[in-house]
Design a protein that fits this description.
The protein is mainly α. Helices cover 62% and strands 6% of the residues. A hairpin with a 5-residue loop joins strand 2 and strand 3.
């Protein structure tokens, strides 16, 4: 299964739990801080990956939604953690049968379940 391969091979990947994000929109600075990257890198990725399209307000400031943050998380994982080139990341996004967004969501949930099981095991051990 692709998910198992993805999760087992990359257990330390950076995950942002988008379900717990409270705001509707996040500024480019807030998103850059989440991933510890520069604002210019986010703007560059927006240019390179057509599906990454944050809203812009009247001043032209980018406003990122939870979905945009999930998209950035996928790009970050492919490029920064797995070492894909931008072209390689684009090809990977095209060829995956299960969308990477779904995979990231499942990985995030699996990590949460794993943490809860560890906590429960710790409580039962004492």
């Amino acid at each position: 299964m692709i998910l198992n391969r993805f999760f087992l091979k990359y257990p330390g990947m950076k995950t942002i739990d988008t379900k717990n994000l409270e705001k509707l929109y996040y500024s480019i600075g807030e998103v850059a801080d989440m991933f510890d990257v520069s604002r210019s890198l986010l703007r560059y990725w927006e240019h390179e990956f057509a599906y990454l399209t944050p809203r812009k307000n009247r001043k032209g400031d980018r406003l990122f939604t939870k979905e945009n943050i999930q998209q950035i998380q996928i790009i970050y994982n492919l490029v920064k953690e797995r070492g894909f080139t931008l072209e390689g990341a684009k090809q990977e996004l095209k060829k995956e049968k299960i969308t990477l967004t779904e995979q990231m969501d499942l990985v995030s949930r699996m990590k949460l379940v794993y943490k809860r099981l560890k906590d429960l095991d710790e409580k039962l051990s004492h």
